[in-house]
Amino acid sequence: ASAWMRASETALNEATRNNPSSIRAYSAEMGETSMKREALMREAFFALDNGEISPWFQPQISTDTGRVTGFEALARWHHPKRGTVAPADFLPALQDTGQMERLGEVVLYGALTALKTWDRAGFFVPCVAVNFTAEELRNPKLAEKIRWDLDRFDLSPDRLTIEVLETIVAGSPEDAAARNLAALAKLGCRIDLDDFGTGHASITAIRRFTIERIKIDRSFISRVDKDQEQQRMVSAIQTMAERLGLETLAEGVETSGEHAMLGQLGCAHVQGFAIARPMPFDDTLAWLTQHNTKLGTLPQIRGGTAI
Ligand code: C2E
Ligand code: CA
Ligand code: CA
C-alpha cells in the first residue's frame, strides 16, 4: 500500500509540474527520473555552499572592429560525479529551494572578480553581463547591494550589465523589480533586454526602463544568412532599435555566415558558438590573448575603463 501511495504521489508531482489540469499515470521510468531530480535538488541545495557553482564566461564582440565588448556570465555547476551541469538542470532546483538570491551573489562576485583580474592582466574588457530573474530583482535591497559591491571592487557601474527578460519590463512600473531596475540604471549600470522578440514588452516600457541594448533572440538568428524571412525580421528589429537609439546584440550566432550577415544588417554586437562557447574564467585569459593576436591589434589598455 505504501508503494502505491508513493507511486501516486510521484504521478501527482509529475502532473503538477506540467500544468494544472494534467493527468499522469505512474510508470517505473517516471519514478526513476523523479528520484534523479529529487537527488539533484537535494545536492543543489548544498552545491552553492560548497563552492561548486560558479560563472563561466562567453565573449561578446563588435561586428565592426572584432574587439571584445563584454562577456556574459553564465552559471555552471561543477558536480563532483556528473561533471559540468548546465543551468537548465539546476536552476529549477535552486528556485524551488529559494536560493536564487545566493546564486545571484555568487555569480556577481565571480563577474566582478573577473573584471578586476582582466584589468590587472592588461586586457580591456569593457563590461560583464549578469542574468537576473524577476524574483531576484524583487529583492528590495538589490540595487543598494550592487552599488556597495561595485564600490568594494572599485569598479565603475557602467562595467556591469544587468540582463533582464521582457516579462520584467512588461510589468507595472510600481513593481519592486521595476523599481530596482530603475535604480540600477540611475546608478549607471547598463541594462540589456534578453531574449528580445520572444516576450511582449511594449515599446513604451523599453523606453521607460532606459534599456541600452536589446539581445535579439537566437530564434531570429539561426540561418539568417540563408533565410530571407529571418533577414527581414532582424532588419525590422534593427530599424526599430536604431530609431529608438538602442544598440543590438545578436545571440546564438553559430556560423561565420550568420556573423557576416548580422554585420551587414547593422547589428553592433554578436555572441555565440561561432565566436566562442562559454568557458571557465581561467580559459578566458588564453582566449583573449589569442583573439587579440588574431585581430593583429596590440593596444591593451591597462586598468580598462569604459569605451
Ligand atoms: P540566456 O541568458 O539566454 O543565455 C544564453 C544561453 O545560450 C546560454 O545557455 C549559452 O550557453 C547558450 N548559447 C550561447 N551561444 C550559443 C549558440 O551559439 N548556440 C546555442 N544553441 N546556444 C548558445 P546556458 O548557459 O545553458 O544558460 C541557459 C539559461 O539559464 C540562460 O539563458 C539564462 O536564462 C539562465 N542562466 C544562466 N546563468 C544564470 C545566472 O547566473 N542567473 C540566472 N538568473 N539565470 C542564469
Ligand atoms: Ca542572458
Ligand atoms: Ca538570451
Keywords:
307 residues, alpha/beta, TIM Barrel, 18% strand, binds ligand C2E, binds calcium ion
How does the SSE layout of this entry go?
Blueprint: H1 2-18, H2 28-47, E1 53-62, E2 68-79, E3 83-85, H3 87-96, H4 100-121, E4 128-131, H5 134-137, H6 142-152, E5 160-165, H7 166-170, H8 176-187, E6 190-196, H9 203-208, E7 213-216, H10 218-221, H11 228-244, E8 247-251, H12 256-264, E9 269-271, H13 281-295
Parallel strand pairs: 2-4, 4-5, 5-6, 6-7, 7-8, 8-9
Antiparallel strand pairs: 1-2, 1-9, 2-3
Helix pairs in contact: 2-3, 6-8
One calcium ion binds next to loops.
- Estimate percent helicity: 40-55%
Overall morphology: globular
Distance between the termini: 68 Å
Strand order of the largest sheet: 1-2-4-5-6-7-8-9
Low-confidence stretches: 300-307
- CATH top level of the largest domain is Alpha Beta
Write out the distinct hetero groups bound to the structure: ligand C2E, calcium ion
Task: Provide a count of the helices.
Answer: 13
User: What is the CATH architecture term of the largest domain?
Assistant: Alpha-Beta Barrel
| Strand runs, count | 9
Q: Tell me the domain tally.
A: 2
Give the rounded overall mean pLDDT: 90
Order of helices and strands, N to C?
HHEEEHHEHHEHHEHEHHEHEH
